[in-house]
Structures are given as C-alpha cells and as structure tokens.
Amino acid sequence: MPTRSTDSNRAPLMAVAVVHHHFPPSHNPSLKPSPLIRRRRLLSFPHSSSHRPHPQSPILNLMAGRTSAALQSLVEEVSATISSGAPPIPALAGLGGALFLRNRSGDCLAVVKPFNAGETGVREAAAYLLDHAAFAGVPPTALIQISHPPTNLLASIQRFVPHEFDAGDLGPSRFSVASVHRIGILDIRLLNTDRHAGNLLVQKQSVDKNRTFDGAELATELVPIDHGLCLPELLEDPYFEWLHWPQAAVPFSGEEIQYVSKIDPFKDAELLRAELPSIREPAIRILILCTIFLKKAVDFGLCLSEIGGMMTREFCRMEEGESFLESLCTKAEESIGAESELGEEDDVKEYQELCEKPLDLNCHGAGVERSKMISFKDKNEEQWMLFLERFEQILTEVFEVMKKVEVKLKPGSPCNI
C-alpha cells in the first residue's frame, strides 16, 4: 500500500471511495449497472480520523464489467492514483479524447475514455467480458463513473499495456500463430468492424526461431485493444486486418479447437444481458449468430482466413456484394415457411445458387445498402429461434455438400468456392 510522501511539493493525498452501484448515472439512464456487482466501499488510503471517505473525496463508481481479480486490482490502483492528485494526461491526437493515468512512480497505469451515450465504452467492456480466460488477451476493462461534485465523469477504463509497437509498425511475419488465431476467434464472435493494425499492440518475446515465419529469434505477441466498434446491431461488413496474414491460413491447434467447442453463445448472451444491459438485443443476436457460424466452421475444419473470408463482403467494380454469411442468412429467411425435400443433385444445385453472388465476378447483383443490411431487431423470440434452427440446418447442409464436391477455399476469399 502506498505511503504518504514527505515531499512538500506533492499534492496531499485524499481518500477515495470505490463504490459498486446498483443504479445508473442520472445523465445516462440507459446505462444500467450490473445487478451482479456487489455494492461495497474501499478506502485507497487509511484515514487517521475515520475509516469513511472524506465528504469531498472523489467517488469511483464501478458501473459495469466483470468483477475479476484483475479488474478489481485495476480499480484499486486507479483509485490510489486519483487520490494522489495525479492529473490525467491527454493521449495523442486521434484517440477520441482518451486520457492516460500515471501512478506516483510515473508509470502509465490505465487508459480512460470519457463517453456520453455509452455505446463504444460499453462494447469495450463487453470484449473483456466475453474474452473467457483471457484467451485473446483483452486487457482488463470496465465502465466507471468518477464523481467529484460538481463534476461527474463517465468513462471506460482499461489497463495500460506496455508495448514496443503496434502491428502497423511491423510486418506480420513475426507475429505468433497462436496470438493471431486467438484474436481472430474473438473478432469473429464479436463481428469486429474495426480490427486494424493500429489496435493490435506488439510485445516482443524471445522464442525458438523455428516458430517464426522468417526464422527470427524474436517473436511478438499481440494485445487487442479498441473494441468500441464490435457487436454491431446490423450484420455489417467486418474488417479483419489479419485476414491475409500467413498465420491465418495455418490450421487451428487442438487447444484452439477445444476452446471454440466450449463457447456457449446463449450463455454469452445471458452474460451480456446481466452485466451490460444497455447493449441492445439486436447486437446480442449478432453475437449468437457469429458464434454459431464460427463453431460450425471450426468443426468442419476451416482455418481462420477461410472463416473470415466467408464473413467479408466482396468488392468488384466499385460495388459491394453480399458476403457468404449474409447469403446464408438470406437463404435461411427465404426457406422459413417453404419446406421442401431435396435430393442430392438438388442439394448441389441449391449450394451453387447460394454461392452465386460471391462467385459473380461480373458484379451483376446490386450492392449492399445500409438500409437493406440484415437485422434481427424485429423478430420475436419464437421467430428468432426458428431462424437460428434453419440457419444451422442450411449451414450444415452446405458444409456437407462442400465435402462431397471437395471444395477448396482460397484463404481470405470466398469467391474461390
């Protein structure tokens, strides 16, 4: 625990109360704290006269996020930093008003991103919440409110990760296969529309040179940050920086296959509803759909680049066509209420028709307009479950036909089906 400094130039320390609330901040009623978070007060520093916080001390409210040991440690360190009087430091331009918090030793402790509506901040917390067992390495993230009347700051807070570069500063050849795979699995589940090189932090590690693509003695582990544009409410076109990296074409390891097999999309949905109730149902249904697609594709034996390519739209002559995943959803929607039994020849024909748009190199089809993007907002629960049942059925049939005709996918390109 930090001690009081004898340096007269230092700001006096203040006690900070860390409160886990059950009520939303008044200026953002849509952002409701998790009912699973227990209410408790923690004093960052002992007070000689009382164990209660001073009436004028800042109050740090943990509004939402997984109450893990790592997160609790972060919150306590942040409260200590605030109590020391250390001012936040604005981040570089282009980071959306992000602030760095440094501890009394001058080390960067956390990144704080103030927000109003709560959309991106909530999704930052969701990515950490859904990164089970820190498989992809999302840094501890939560939503907080710092109250120091008359000021109330609502923000997402994330543990700062010391790093050498971001992925844009290096070629991908030195990135470890496991690191790329684990981040890719998370991006697919969350339909990340903004996985660019700048939000993949690079940490160097000494490894056997045989493990890298170019024989280097240093490999790099990637740390994923900036998840504010994941979990869209429409079936949007994702952006996966790793799609054409050589690691994405390497088959999944046994550990990765086992991890994916244990993911339960419906439990994940319940987790989001309980911990982050401001995330709306259409976004949660996107999570369920993409997780089911991932699990089926991994079980079929596809690699990361193949799966990502099937989710990504094709551009031809400045027009954007449907992705393979969107085509599957359209086919599932059309098949509901129109049951028919098909023979094997018809199966192949149906499959070829399903793949016609991704294969249409002449771009006869119209582009995808935002107003026509697939949404599950208007489905009631019965309709939604029927759609998922039909989607899984068609997806299974498609994969079976792919086996029969020995379809080979070019990494990152569904047009090669």
Radius of gyration: 24 Å
- Sheet with the most strands, sense and barrel status: 7 strands, mixed
* Termini gap: 60 Å
Total number of distinct structural domains:
2
Strand order of the largest sheet: 1-2-6-7-5-4-3
Bin the strand percentage.
5-15%
Helical run tally: 11
- The general outline is globular
Mean pLDDT: 76
The run of helices and strands is EEHEEEHEEEHEEHHHHEEHHHH
Characterise the protein shown here.
This protein is an alpha+beta fold. The chain folds into two domains: 143 residues, no CATH class; 208 residues, no CATH class. It has eleven helices and twelve strands. The strands form three sheets. Strands 1-2-6-7-5-4-3 form a seven-stranded mixed β-sheet. A three-stranded antiparallel β-sheet has the order 8-9-10. It has a two-stranded antiparallel ribbon with strand order 11-12. The longest helix has 24 residues. It is globular and about 65 Å long. The N terminus and C terminus are likely disordered.
Fill in the keyword field for this structure.
417 residues; alpha+beta; seven-stranded mixed β-sheet; disordered N terminus; 11 helices; three-stranded antiparallel β-sheet
